[in-house]
Amino acid sequence: SDERAREGRQQREREKERKREGERLLLAWGRSSSMALAAKMQGALRRGYSTSRGGLSALASATHLTAFTNPAEDSFEEPVMLTRGEGVYVWDTEGKRYLDTLSGLWSNALGNGNDRIVNAATTQMKKLAYQHTFWNRTTDVAEEYADRLVNFSSGIGATQAFFSSGGSDANDTNIKLAWYYWSALGEPQRTKIIAREKGYHGVTITAASISGQPKMHAGFGPLPLNFVKHVSCPHYFKYGLEGETEDQYSSRLAKEIDDLIVREGPETVACFIAEPICGAGGVIPPPAGYFEKVQAVLKKHGVLFIIDEVITGFGRTGAKFGSNFYGIQPDLITIAKAMSSSYYPLGAALLTERIADVVREQAEKFGNFGHG
């Protein structure tokens, strides 16, 4: 048909332009003062990586150190190079369409090209693109959003929000808030954090330490930091004993946490952190009774509970938050990802009344809340 012929011509023209761009990049890199990078790019092209992708695949091996990817030249695999998206679909440079079933990284919940988001962001950026919230300064939209966010999250006890640029630093903020809380109550020795194997909480120094992912620690000096203690991943179908029911398995894991707290000394443990559903660890839902039993242990020893809702927040489980779905009552909540559908780097630490009141009193002693 005429439509198919037109699409074919457009595809061929795009292909020609990509080849021309590849030649321009090669020429530019051939003149580059960074001869090592230029040689690496040319070597990648000689090994057959696509010049039809504008030389970008080869360039990726030279200048872009990408997350959780082997950067060694010998193991370099030509990346999937995405160029556009519409709704739940994305396209690569060859025009191949993919169904983005992971929503990017569990984050692009409203899909690509959402006009309401694009228009709202454009309007706001034209009106006021940036301002900080330091030193008793704020903005109308920050206050409006904080109020709406707290109202949305009130069902899990949130009363106050502290904004961040993502989940990693929001988790770091919640760890600091736990320390701040215990310091205010005259127990500054409560610094230890209990986290779970296979958990994922981000890649900053503290967030990586509490993540139970050995590959995130290997080669990174002192990681995980020594105040972090890991307990078993609650994967019943993989680690449950023969003849052990889910409830019995949950009791065993709760006892493991109890035993660890007693062994370390309850007076040294600040908090326990967990995801409602282990995401990067394998999408592992908790076994029956797990959070009920774990929360009983935490309350017995006065240990704070940080729930990491970065993946499970904003409807991922069918409820507003994973905490609603599993009956979790946290002290601090970490959110990000679907919070902005990843159109903008955004996260937050949500404080319950118990924490917010103590933080307010402690900050008054020091003259301000020294975190931002």
Q: What is this structure's SSE topology?
A:
Blueprint: H1 2-30, H2 35-46, H3 56-63, E1 82-86, E2 89-92, E3 97-99, H4 103-106, H5 115-127, H6 140-152, E4 158-164, H7 167-184, E5 192-196, H8 205-210, E6 228-231, H9 236-239, H10 246-264, E7 269-274, H11 290-301, E8 304-308, H12 322-326, E9 332-335, E10 347-352, H13 353-366
Parallel strand pairs: 5-6, 5-7, 7-8, 8-9
Antiparallel strand pairs: 1-2, 2-3, 4-10, 9-10
Helix pairs in contact: 2-3, 7-13, 10-11
Structure description:
The protein is an alpha/beta fold. The protein has 13 helices and ten strands. The protein has a seven-stranded mixed beta sheet with strand order 4-10-9-8-7-5-6, sandwiched between helices. Strand 1 and strand 2 form a beta hairpin. Helix 2 packs across helix 3 and helix 7 packs across helix 13. The model has no long low-confidence stretch (mean pLDDT 90).
Q: Which short descriptors sum up this protein?
A:
three-stranded antiparallel sheet, seven-stranded mixed sheet, alpha/beta, single chain, 42% helix, 372 residues, 13 helices, globular
Strand adjacency order, main sheet = 4-10-9-8-7-5-6
Overall pLDDT metric: 90
User: Largest sheet at a glance?
Assistant: 7 strands, mixed
**Low-confidence parts, pLDDT < 50 over ≥5 residues?**
none
Cα-atom radius of gyration: 24 Å
Distance between the termini: 59 Å
